[in-house]
Every structure is written in structure tokens, then in C-alpha cells.
Amino acid sequence: xxxxxxxxxxxxxxxxxxxxxxxxxxxxxxxxxxxxxxxxxxxxxxxxxxxxxxxxxxxxxxxxxxxxxxxxxxxxxxxxxxxxxxxxxxxxxxxxxxxxxxxxxxxxxxxxxxxxxxxxxxxxxxxxxxxxxxxxxxxxxxxxxxxxxxxxxxxxxxxxxxxxxxxxxxxxxxxxxxxxxxxxxxxxxxxxxxxxxxxxxxxxxxxxxxxxxxxxxxxxxxxxxxxxxxxxxxxxxxxxxxxxxxxxxxxxxxxxxxxxxxxxxxxxxxxxxxxxxxxxxxxxxxxxxxxxxxxxxxxxxxxxxxxxxxxxxxxxxxxxxxxxxxxxxxxxxxxxxxxxxxxxxxxxxxxxxxxxxxxxxxxxxxxxxxx
Length: 371
Known about the structure:
The chain is of the alpha+beta class. Helix content is 60%, strand content 11%. The chain contains ten helices and seven strands. The strands form two sheets. The chain has a five-stranded mixed beta sheet with strand order 2-4-5-7-6. The protein has a two-stranded antiparallel sheet with strand order 1-3. β4 and β5 (287-294) form a beta hairpin. α3 (43-59) runs parallel beside α5 (96-168), α5 (96-168) packs antiparallel against α6 (174-206) and α6 runs parallel beside α10 (328-339). The chain starts with a helix and ends in a 10-residue tail after the last strand.
């Protein structure tokens, strides 16, 4: 609770802490009075009750002031209610000054120690904010480098092909002209998907898109994904392994489709030497686990550590269009899956190739077999 308290504006922190102090001391008075109705009234037990509430108050308020204020109230109330003469403030009586002095020291020390714990939480919270801000800036820088890297090749290709057609189109055969136009079309489609990916990242991160989950049947989701994927890559076979039972998963189906298509496309573009590509979905407990596997070249271990950060350079320094988009699409996948409350990871397979895995929670009440 103290972490949430320090995220509030200063005025609300003070107001909240004052309210906690008043309620805490009121509860301590009520508990001590209730205790006296049923049990023997002893100064030690009463002191323990008030010290317990003092600790709770100090741990849930900001700074030292409220704990020390409550310590003063405890001393006054204890003298008024539980020392002779009752219902009268009388500090000078024999023995009482030392008793209240030690009690004051104990309560103030408890207040200070509890407040230090609260301040420690505040320090940790500020540290988390700084680290989160630094990580966000690093991600933005990586994203900017990735965009610059990935957009350069298709834009150059489009410009070169269109210029060639405009200046020397009459010197090319219809087949050559068609090949140049087809290259322009393919690169334009790729740029469109790149923009869609970038918009997905920025909108989700900025909170402009709210993930609205609707129950989606797994088989229908996969059918839609494969239909769109085969239009883009008609020559690429994908082996499917799905649960036999009906699985319903709460999700934003459009965004999860984007994740699956990005991961399949990533394998087509970057898994050199790949001859097998598979999409497997199985259930484990209350989760659905999606795995996209290939038997290609695998992923360099150093790149594997940062593969979802938004930037991963091509395997070499060439400008081959098949090596572009090595980071943006995966960053989109990570953003979408985490926004759904799931996890995403990538590993190299022992048999060769790589495996991308992500999880989604299954709708409660769905019947499925644990594997």
C-alpha cells in the first residue's frame, strides 16, 4: 500500500496519512475499550495494543510526523485512561514520569523505524521509475534505429524501380516491366505492414488502444491466420498441431492474429535453410501455449537476449531485403502479448532452428486436457 501512496500527489499523501492516523488511533481506543470489557485491564496489555496500531500507522503513512504525533496521543491517552487517578492527566505522580519517558522513547523509536521502512519503499519506487524511464528511452532509441534500418532498403527499391520505369520504361519488355512493378507492389505491401506494426506499438504503449478481450474459439483464430498468411506466402507450408477439444481464449483477436502472422513471417524471412515450419497450440493448466517452430539457422545467442527489444541488426551488413524487419515485428508481438497479460520468449532448438513461444490465459470454465 505504501508504494501506491507515494504515487499520489503531495496534498493527497498528507490527507491520506492524516486520515490513516485518525482512524488508526480511533481503532486502538476502541480495541482497548473492548478488551477492558472482557479481560483484566493491565497497563502492559493496553500498551501492546497501542504499540501495535502505532506500527501499522507508521508503515502506512509518509514521513515521521504522523508516527510521532500518534506517539504523543498514546502517551496522553494512556495517562488519562489507564493510570491512577483515572480520567485525569497527572504526570508528576511518583514513578510515572520515568514510565512515560521510557514509553515515549519506545513509541517514538518504533515510529521512526517504521517510517524508515516506508521511506525505503519510496526510494525503491523512485529507483524503479528511473530504471523504467531509462529502459523506455533505450527502447525508443532502438526502435528509431530499427525503423531507419528497415525502411531504407524498400524505399530505395521503390524509388529505383519507379525511376527506371519512368525514364527508360520503353526499353523494357512487358515481362521486365511487370517484374519491376511487382517489386514495387511487394515493397509497398511490406511498408504498409511495417506502419501497422509501428502504430500498434505506439498506440498500446500510449494507452490509446485498450485491450478488449472477447471469447475467441482457437480453431477460428488459426483459420483466419492461415488464410491471411497463405495469401502472402502461398509457397510456404505450415504444419498445424491443435488441441482436439474446443478451446476458448479471451483476446483481442485482431491483435493476436497480427502476432501469429508476424512470427510466421519472421521465420520465412530470417530462418535461413528452413524446410519445416510448424504452428503448435496446446493447453497447460489455465493457459494456452502457442509455439512457432522452424528448422532453420537458429538465432545468435547474443541477439537472442534482446530479440524483443525492438532492434536487431541483420545477420550481416548486406542490404538484402530478406534480412530487413528483424526487430520491429517481434517488438510488436511482445507489446501485444504483454498487454494481454501473457508471456513471450524465444529459444534455439537442440535439433536446430528456433522456437517462439507465447502464452494466453484460457477462459474460465473451458474444458481442456492438461499436457
